[in-house]
Amino acid sequence: MKSEGYFSRNELFWGEDNQKLLSFKHVAVFGLGGVGGFCAEALVRAGVGELTIVDFDTVSESNINRQLVALHSTVGQSKTYLFEQRLKDINPDIKLHVIDDFYSGNLDLKNIDYVADAIDTMRSKIELLETCVNSNIPVISSMGAGNRIDPTQLYICDISQIENKNVSFVSNIIYQLKKCGIEKGITVVASREKPFVQKKISEAEKIMTKSGENIEFTKITPSSTPFVASCAGIFMASFIVRNFLKEYTS
Predict the structure, then answer these.
(1) Region 15-37 average pLDDT
(2) What is the β-pairing status of strands 50-54 and 95-99?
(3) Helix/strand/coil for 84
(4) How far apart are CA 20 and CA 42, in angstroms?
(5) Taking a C-beta distance cutoff of 8 angstroms, is the pair 51, 96 a contact?
(6) pTM for the whole thing?
(7) Cβ atoms of residues 29 and 36 within 8 Å
(8) What domains does the chain contain, in order, with CATH numbers?
(9) Residue range 162-186: mean pLDDT, rounded
(10) What is the H or E stretch that residue 218 is in?
(11) Separation of alpha carbons 67 and 7, rounded Å
Protein backbone atom coordinates (compact mmCIF):
# COMPACT_ATOMS: atom_id res chain seq x y z
CA MET A 1 0.00 0.00 0.00
CA LYS A 2 1.45 3.36 -0.95
CA SER A 3 1.85 6.06 1.67
CA GLU A 4 -1.11 8.45 1.43
CA GLY A 5 -1.37 12.02 2.62
CA TYR A 6 -4.07 11.17 5.14
CA PHE A 7 -1.54 9.16 7.15
CA SER A 8 1.22 11.79 6.96
CA ARG A 9 0.70 12.95 10.56
CA ASN A 10 0.97 9.35 11.77
CA GLU A 11 4.24 9.01 9.88
CA LEU A 12 5.65 12.09 11.58
CA PHE A 13 5.40 10.10 14.81
CA TRP A 14 6.18 6.49 13.88
CA GLY A 15 7.66 6.79 10.40
CA GLU A 16 6.86 5.45 6.94
CA ASP A 17 8.13 1.92 7.63
CA ASN A 18 5.80 1.49 10.60
CA GLN A 19 2.93 2.98 8.62
CA LYS A 20 3.52 0.32 5.99
CA LEU A 21 3.70 -2.35 8.70
CA LEU A 22 0.25 -1.34 9.97
CA SER A 23 -1.17 -1.61 6.46
CA PHE A 24 -0.52 -5.38 6.57
CA LYS A 25 -2.21 -5.94 9.95
CA HIS A 26 -5.65 -7.48 10.41
CA VAL A 27 -7.79 -6.65 13.46
CA ALA A 28 -11.24 -8.01 14.27
CA VAL A 29 -13.56 -5.73 16.25
CA PHE A 30 -16.50 -7.43 17.94
CA GLY A 31 -19.28 -5.03 18.86
CA LEU A 32 -19.73 -1.62 17.23
CA GLY A 33 -21.36 0.26 20.08
CA GLY A 34 -19.86 3.04 22.16
CA VAL A 35 -16.59 1.17 22.76
CA GLY A 36 -16.12 -0.89 19.61
CA GLY A 37 -17.14 1.85 17.21
CA PHE A 38 -14.48 4.25 18.45
CA CYS A 39 -11.93 1.44 18.51
CA ALA A 40 -12.64 0.45 14.91
CA GLU A 41 -12.46 4.02 13.65
CA ALA A 42 -9.22 4.78 15.49
CA LEU A 43 -7.62 1.65 14.03
CA VAL A 44 -8.57 2.71 10.52
CA ARG A 45 -7.34 6.26 11.09
CA ALA A 46 -4.07 4.76 12.36
CA GLY A 47 -3.71 2.90 9.06
CA VAL A 48 -4.48 -0.69 9.99
CA GLY A 49 -5.01 -2.17 6.54
CA GLU A 50 -7.53 -4.95 7.19
CA LEU A 51 -10.49 -4.99 9.55
CA THR A 52 -13.23 -7.46 10.36
CA ILE A 53 -16.23 -5.83 12.03
CA VAL A 54 -18.93 -7.88 13.75
CA ASP A 55 -22.29 -6.68 15.05
CA PHE A 56 -25.92 -7.74 14.68
CA ASP A 57 -27.62 -4.59 15.94
CA THR A 58 -29.29 -1.53 14.46
CA VAL A 59 -29.07 2.05 15.66
CA SER A 60 -31.62 3.06 18.28
CA GLU A 61 -32.43 6.51 19.65
CA SER A 62 -30.78 5.59 22.94
CA ASN A 63 -27.45 5.17 21.09
CA ILE A 64 -27.35 8.81 19.97
CA ASN A 65 -25.72 10.12 23.15
CA ARG A 66 -22.48 8.18 22.63
CA GLN A 67 -22.10 6.14 19.42
CA LEU A 68 -20.29 7.40 16.31
CA VAL A 69 -22.82 6.35 13.69
CA ALA A 70 -25.90 7.04 15.82
CA LEU A 71 -27.81 10.03 14.46
CA HIS A 72 -31.49 10.81 14.09
CA SER A 73 -31.05 10.11 10.38
CA THR A 74 -29.56 6.64 11.00
CA VAL A 75 -32.01 5.24 13.57
CA GLY A 76 -33.06 1.75 12.49
CA GLN A 77 -30.12 1.21 10.16
CA SER A 78 -27.56 -1.59 10.51
CA LYS A 79 -24.45 -0.59 12.45
CA THR A 80 -22.21 -2.74 10.29
CA TYR A 81 -23.59 -1.10 7.11
CA LEU A 82 -23.06 2.39 8.54
CA PHE A 83 -19.52 1.60 9.66
CA GLU A 84 -18.71 0.02 6.32
CA GLN A 85 -19.56 3.30 4.59
CA ARG A 86 -17.80 5.41 7.20
CA LEU A 87 -14.57 3.41 7.41
CA LYS A 88 -14.22 3.19 3.63
CA ASP A 89 -14.71 6.96 3.48
CA ILE A 90 -11.76 7.34 5.87
CA ASN A 91 -9.53 4.88 4.00
CA PRO A 92 -10.86 3.79 0.59
CA ASP A 93 -8.06 1.20 0.36
CA ILE A 94 -8.97 -0.66 3.53
CA LYS A 95 -9.74 -4.37 3.24
CA LEU A 96 -12.98 -4.69 5.18
CA HIS A 97 -14.88 -7.83 6.18
CA VAL A 98 -18.40 -7.08 7.38
CA ILE A 99 -20.29 -9.61 9.50
CA ASP A 100 -23.81 -8.45 10.27
CA ASP A 101 -24.63 -11.21 12.73
CA PHE A 102 -24.72 -12.17 16.39
CA TYR A 103 -21.44 -13.76 17.47
CA SER A 104 -22.00 -17.22 18.90
CA GLY A 105 -18.59 -18.80 18.53
CA ASN A 106 -19.08 -19.62 14.86
CA LEU A 107 -16.45 -17.37 13.27
CA ASP A 108 -13.06 -18.53 12.01
CA LEU A 109 -10.44 -16.26 13.56
CA LYS A 110 -7.40 -17.51 11.65
CA ASN A 111 -5.31 -14.88 9.87
CA ILE A 112 -6.38 -12.27 12.44
CA ASP A 113 -3.51 -10.50 14.18
CA TYR A 114 -5.49 -9.01 17.05
CA VAL A 115 -9.02 -9.09 18.46
CA ALA A 116 -10.79 -6.15 20.10
CA ASP A 117 -13.66 -7.41 22.24
CA ALA A 118 -16.39 -4.85 22.85
CA ILE A 119 -19.21 -7.38 23.27
CA ASP A 120 -21.67 -6.69 26.09
CA THR A 121 -23.51 -10.03 26.00
CA MET A 122 -21.98 -12.35 28.60
CA ARG A 123 -22.27 -15.65 26.71
CA SER A 124 -20.76 -14.31 23.47
CA LYS A 125 -18.01 -12.47 25.33
CA ILE A 126 -16.91 -15.61 27.18
CA GLU A 127 -16.97 -17.68 23.98
CA LEU A 128 -14.85 -15.12 22.14
CA LEU A 129 -12.29 -14.73 24.92
CA GLU A 130 -12.01 -18.50 25.36
CA THR A 131 -11.49 -18.95 21.61
CA CYS A 132 -8.79 -16.27 21.52
CA VAL A 133 -6.87 -17.75 24.45
CA ASN A 134 -7.09 -21.31 23.14
CA SER A 135 -6.05 -20.18 19.65
CA ASN A 136 -3.22 -17.93 20.89
CA ILE A 137 -4.79 -14.86 19.30
CA PRO A 138 -3.93 -11.61 21.13
CA VAL A 139 -7.07 -9.95 22.49
CA ILE A 140 -7.98 -6.84 24.44
CA SER A 141 -11.37 -6.78 26.12
CA SER A 142 -13.59 -4.01 27.46
CA MET A 143 -14.61 -4.83 31.02
CA GLY A 144 -17.54 -2.46 31.32
CA ALA A 145 -17.72 1.20 30.28
CA GLY A 146 -21.38 1.62 31.19
CA ASN A 147 -22.65 3.13 34.45
CA ARG A 148 -19.66 5.49 34.59
CA ILE A 149 -18.86 9.14 33.85
CA ASP A 150 -15.09 9.60 34.48
CA PRO A 151 -12.78 8.37 31.68
CA THR A 152 -9.67 9.29 33.67
CA GLN A 153 -10.31 6.24 35.86
CA LEU A 154 -9.83 3.81 32.98
CA TYR A 155 -6.70 1.66 32.95
CA ILE A 156 -5.22 -1.30 31.05
CA CYS A 157 -4.01 -4.47 32.74
CA ASP A 158 -4.10 -8.26 32.61
CA ILE A 159 -7.44 -9.70 33.66
CA SER A 160 -5.74 -11.20 36.72
CA GLN A 161 -4.78 -7.68 37.88
CA ILE A 162 -8.20 -6.00 37.78
CA GLU A 163 -8.42 -3.88 40.92
CA ASN A 164 -12.15 -4.13 41.56
CA LYS A 165 -13.32 -7.67 40.92
CA ASN A 166 -16.57 -7.21 42.87
CA VAL A 167 -18.41 -5.39 40.07
CA SER A 168 -21.03 -7.90 38.91
CA PHE A 169 -20.21 -7.72 35.19
CA VAL A 170 -16.51 -8.22 35.86
CA SER A 171 -16.94 -10.88 38.54
CA ASN A 172 -19.26 -12.91 36.29
CA ILE A 173 -16.76 -12.86 33.43
CA ILE A 174 -13.89 -13.83 35.73
CA TYR A 175 -15.96 -16.66 37.22
CA GLN A 176 -17.01 -18.06 33.84
CA LEU A 177 -13.47 -17.86 32.42
CA LYS A 178 -12.09 -19.56 35.52
CA LYS A 179 -14.47 -22.46 34.84
CA CYS A 180 -12.78 -22.69 31.42
CA GLY A 181 -9.35 -22.77 33.07
CA ILE A 182 -8.53 -19.18 32.16
CA GLU A 183 -7.36 -16.84 34.92
CA LYS A 184 -4.79 -14.69 33.11
CA GLY A 185 -3.44 -13.84 29.67
CA ILE A 186 -6.25 -11.51 28.57
CA THR A 187 -5.55 -7.78 28.36
CA VAL A 188 -8.48 -5.66 29.54
CA VAL A 189 -9.59 -2.06 29.78
CA ALA A 190 -11.15 -1.65 33.22
CA SER A 191 -12.27 1.24 35.42
CA ARG A 192 -11.58 2.20 39.01
CA GLU A 193 -14.82 4.15 39.11
CA LYS A 194 -17.71 2.71 41.10
CA PRO A 195 -20.57 2.00 38.66
CA PHE A 196 -23.83 3.88 39.16
CA VAL A 197 -27.30 3.70 37.60
CA GLN A 198 -30.52 5.42 38.64
CA LYS A 199 -32.72 2.49 37.67
CA LYS A 200 -31.96 -1.13 36.79
CA ILE A 201 -33.55 -2.25 33.52
CA SER A 202 -33.45 -5.77 32.12
CA GLU A 203 -35.49 -7.70 29.61
CA ALA A 204 -35.46 -11.03 27.83
CA GLU A 205 -34.20 -10.87 24.26
CA LYS A 206 -34.44 -13.43 21.49
CA ILE A 207 -32.23 -13.37 18.39
CA MET A 208 -31.96 -15.67 15.41
CA THR A 209 -28.50 -15.76 13.88
CA LYS A 210 -27.93 -15.87 10.13
CA SER A 211 -27.26 -19.60 10.47
CA GLY A 212 -30.69 -20.12 12.02
CA GLU A 213 -29.55 -20.55 15.62
CA ASN A 214 -31.96 -19.18 18.22
CA ILE A 215 -30.26 -17.22 20.98
CA GLU A 216 -32.03 -16.17 24.17
CA PHE A 217 -30.47 -14.01 26.87
CA THR A 218 -31.27 -11.37 29.45
CA LYS A 219 -30.39 -7.91 28.18
CA ILE A 220 -29.33 -5.51 30.91
CA THR A 221 -29.50 -1.84 29.96
CA PRO A 222 -26.76 0.16 31.74
CA SER A 223 -26.60 3.90 32.15
CA SER A 224 -24.20 5.37 29.58
CA THR A 225 -22.54 8.77 29.24
CA PRO A 226 -20.83 10.24 26.16
CA PHE A 227 -17.40 10.06 27.82
CA VAL A 228 -16.23 6.66 29.03
CA ALA A 229 -17.11 4.21 26.25
CA SER A 230 -15.44 6.35 23.59
CA CYS A 231 -12.23 6.63 25.62
CA ALA A 232 -12.23 2.90 26.35
CA GLY A 233 -12.38 2.25 22.59
CA ILE A 234 -9.50 4.65 21.97
CA PHE A 235 -7.49 2.95 24.73
CA MET A 236 -8.01 -0.40 23.03
CA ALA A 237 -7.01 0.86 19.58
CA SER A 238 -3.90 2.58 20.96
CA PHE A 239 -2.84 -0.56 22.81
CA ILE A 240 -3.23 -2.70 19.70
CA VAL A 241 -1.26 -0.30 17.49
CA ARG A 242 1.50 0.09 20.09
CA ASN A 243 1.82 -3.67 20.24
CA PHE A 244 2.12 -3.84 16.47
CA LEU A 245 4.82 -1.19 16.49
CA LYS A 246 6.65 -2.77 19.46
CA GLU A 247 9.06 0.12 19.88
CA TYR A 248 6.33 2.27 21.45
CA THR A 249 4.97 -0.42 23.78
CA SER A 250 5.59 0.62 27.37
Answers:
(1) 97
(2) parallel
(3) helix
(4) 17
(5) yes
(6) 0.95
(7) yes
(8) 8-193+224-245 (3.40.50.720)
(9) 95
(10) strand 214-221
(11) 24
